[in-house]
Amino acid sequence: MAKDENPRQKFIDVAYKLFSERGFYGVSLNDVAKEIGVSKQAIIYHFRTKEALYAAVLGKMAGHFDEVVGRVRAQEGTGVARLEAVLGALHRHMQDCPEDARLIMRELLDNPDRAKTSQKWFLRGFLDDMVEVMRETPLYAGQSDDAVASAAYQAIGAINYFAISDATLVGVWGEGRLAGMKESFLSALVAREGRDS
């Protein structure tokens, strides 16, 4: 590690990569230390436990999503136009940063008991923002909070699942079909979510 690097941030960055590849249970503090070339004690100095390091990684991921939605919400527009902008920004982010997509999937699959007892999930603010954006569209304006939250979660899930499925889709349908799906994915999703508007 270079002397001018922030060690805490370096630990988070390396752990982010490893946790997204292997999940929480597939990574040890020793793995992170070995990847960086430091002792496990160096990591423990900054993060007392693996859980604390993982929380910092999830915080980094949540920050990515907050930035995506924040940039779009700062722009003009409402309704379907804003929904299209948010879904488009999220889709591009997941394509550019599939580590976030994998990390979400691993978090949901690996840690259901912890998630049940958590009063504040790292992506709660992002989910709430997505619900607000969807509620601005005519389709969801009069819907219950539960219906809008379900639709937001489905849209995020579709984007997330698509972002991590390249190898499978190439195996099933080939490169050409995947390329076509990537071109039409967002318009199909927006048409579904913004219908009747």
- Mean pLDDT metric: 88
Spatial extent as radius of gyration: 19 Å
Structural class: mainly alpha
Order of helices and strands: HHHHHHHHHHH
Largest sheet features: none
Number of strands: 0
- Unreliable stretches, pLDDT < 50, 5 or more residues? none
Q: Hey, roughly how much beta strand do the residues contain?
A: under 5%
User: What is the overall number of helices?
Assistant: 11
Envelope shape:
globular
End-to-end distance: 53 Å
Helix-residue proportion = over 70%
Overview of the molecule:
By secondary structure, this protein is mainly alpha-helical. It is 76% helix and 0% strand. The chain has helices at 7-22, 29-36, 40-46, 50-73, 79-96, 98-110, 112-117, 124-135, 145-163, 166-173, 175-193. The radius of gyration is 19 Å and the shape is globular. The model has no long low-confidence stretch (mean pLDDT 88).
Short description:
By secondary structure, the protein is mostly helical. 76% of the residues lie in helices and 0% in strands.
Topology readout:
Elements: H1 7-22, H2 29-36, H3 40-46, H4 50-73, H5 79-96, H6 98-110, H7 112-117, H8 124-135, H9 145-163, H10 166-173, H11 175-193
Characteristics:
single chain; 197 residues; mainly alpha; 76% helix; 0% strand; globular
